[in-house]
Amino acid sequence: MVLDICRSFGISLDLALEAREILRGETGQEIPGVRVDRERYNEAEVTIVNIVEKAAEAIMGKPMGTYITIEAPVLRENNPAGHHRVSQILARQLEPFISPLPPHANILLVGLGNWRATPDALGPRAIGMSLVTRHLFQYAPRELKGGMRSVSALAPGVLGITGIETAEIIKGVVERIQPELMIVIDSLAARSVTRICTTIQIADTGIAPGSGIGNRRAGINRESMGVPVIAIGVPTVVHAAVIGQDTINAYLRQLQTATNAGLNQHLARQAIQQVLEPFGGNLTVTPKEIDSLIENTAKVIAGGLSLTLHPGLTADDYSYYLH
């Protein structure tokens, strides 16, 4: 049922965790070729979905690879201490991707999205809070402390602002500075409103910008960029069709008769299509407090990146270099 509404409206499931939950719920069994592990912390639950077979790749609709999901409801609270602990959890999950790199490795951070639209501004905001050091390695090496890496950053904007495909801009920078690793930050679309700005996904498969809102751009991954790409994404919107379907399903469950439920599922889809027709069937919803949620989440991501990329720095050091 959920997959039907997603297919009807061309909704992509950005979170591998949600894709697995929906498929597993409809089949009643684990997906062959998918391995799942879990870790629990006081502030968060971490689910690691590994797609290890080509057949599973086709079923899940996602490339083979590792998808790490951090679910942390504390991100929606005014809780700086809790946010810092989530940054530490994020850093711990990123560590296996960073630690194999040599100390002199050059790392490029890319913040995808439109800084003029708050729900899509997570990437640029996180870049603005991240510690970049490549210029210091080149022009002020005496200012550097031990445990720092060469990090550069880019917020290329979107096609509607620049007139240039984002992947083209990034590819040009990659060819020029030749990083050993790229970390891309982007806003995602969720299946559930409870996951808006409470969930962080890390994927070693790269990203397709705009796919969650039906505006798929050229992929940013190892194949297109020529370097490994780690994607960090946070859901900031939910498709209105999904919310509508959930509302109608809740109503139908209250009817408690299979006949009425079966009859109204088709009518429900028609009703949703009529409501969304002025928007071409493509309407996404975000909470009214999205400004503060984006700010908090961007800080958490920037903090997690700094802890991972510059393990030799203290909080005071971080503040010194950032300003």
TrEMBL record:
Post-translational modification: Autoproteolytically processed. The inactive tetrameric zymogen termed p46 autoprocesses to a smaller form termed p41, which is active only during spore germination.
Keywords: Hydrolase, Protease, Zymogen
Hydrolase keyword on record: yes
GO molecular function terms noted in the UniProt entry: metalloendopeptidase activity
Pfam families in the record: Peptidase_A25
Enzyme class: hydrolase
Catalysed transformations (reactions): Endopeptidase action with P4 Glu or Asp, P1 preferably Glu > Asp, P1' hydrophobic and P2' Ala
Enzyme Commission number: 3.4.24.78
Domain of life assignment: Bacteria
Propeptide residue interval(s): 1-14
GO process annotations (BP): proteolysis; spore germination
Assembly description: Homotetramer.
Similarity annotation: Belongs to the peptidase A25 family.
Task of the protein: Initiates the rapid degradation of small, acid-soluble proteins during spore germination.
Protein name per UniProt: Germination protease
UniProt organism field: Desulfofundulus thermobenzoicus
Gene behind this protein: gpr
